[in-house]
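#help-structures
NK: newbie question, is this the right format to request a structure? protein is Tryptophan--tRNA ligase
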Amino acid sequence: MTERRRMLTGDRPTGKLHLGHYVGSISNRIRLQREYDSFFIIADLHMLTTKNTVEDIGKVAENARHLVLDSLSAGIDPEHATYYLQSAVPEVCELNTLFQNLVTVPRLERIPSLKDMARDAHKEEMPYGLLGYPILQAADIMCVRSHVCPVGKDNAPHVEITREIARRFNHLYGEVFPVVELINAEVPTLVGTDGQAKMSKSIGNVIYLSDTPAEVRKRVMGMYTDPNRVRADVPGTVEGNPVFAYHDAFNDNKAQVEDLKTRYREGKVGDVEVKEKLAEAINRFLDPMRERRAKYEEQSGLVDQLIVEGTERTRREVQATVFAARKAMGLTGAFNSIRRKAERAAKKAATQ
């Protein structure tokens, strides 16, 4: 019987998931979850690259629960998901060490998203751990020997680093790791509600998957639109307008969207109506999630159980991967040779 192919992706436990996460990765996770053996990392070691205070770390457990509950509510089936806490699988750090010599500093410095992450975290200089973020991410992906990785646009260059490391490792030491396939999102980046940057928890320009209808409406009504449109009878610009980008992504009534676009360009509809319709559409989109959330919240301890069982399963898988990598490299043989010689010497000394 052919072994089932695997998928790995996940999130840092820095807060709740939002619509940007959904279009960037979660929608693909939902679509592919039954096709692959699915591993979902709660990447708290990655969080330390930009959030490493005692207070930040103290929030990991609660934020991990939010991540799992949010993704279950979005449509992940707990029967088809292995969630695990990254820091509870220490063997991944050994893989990180083995991989870090297979990529150069200049190669990492060419990844633009790392500079963006440092800027968003208000870091004047890039920490060593942030520069090495893609290497640890490669260890995450390859620790369970994943075949596919659905991620958002920002992480696509990181996955390419993973592919390069896998090829180099396999070339140097023998075939151990699959060369992972990147699965791109249909909506590469979702602009934030402020219209100034991508949707980001650190900036706060977000609509959360767990928002109430009233919270959604408040966030939508405060959204940025066409800055040159001062009255409803002034023709407006649809292209690049965040409100219409959200309509395209989340409004299931496509005829309504086209009507709003036409009237907006002609100066025959106000921003208030366009936003009202968007709030209604996003709430329709989130309503099934709210129903699933209520169902899962009634099952006391479910989320914690999923994380514990998933972490235990993942650690067993990673231990097997590390053993295979060390064996391929000859590291296991080196120590065994030294140990056998030491044992022979000890035995000889004991008989004298």
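mod (FA): yep, format's fine, and the tokens are attached above. The mean pLDDT is 92.
NK: thank you!
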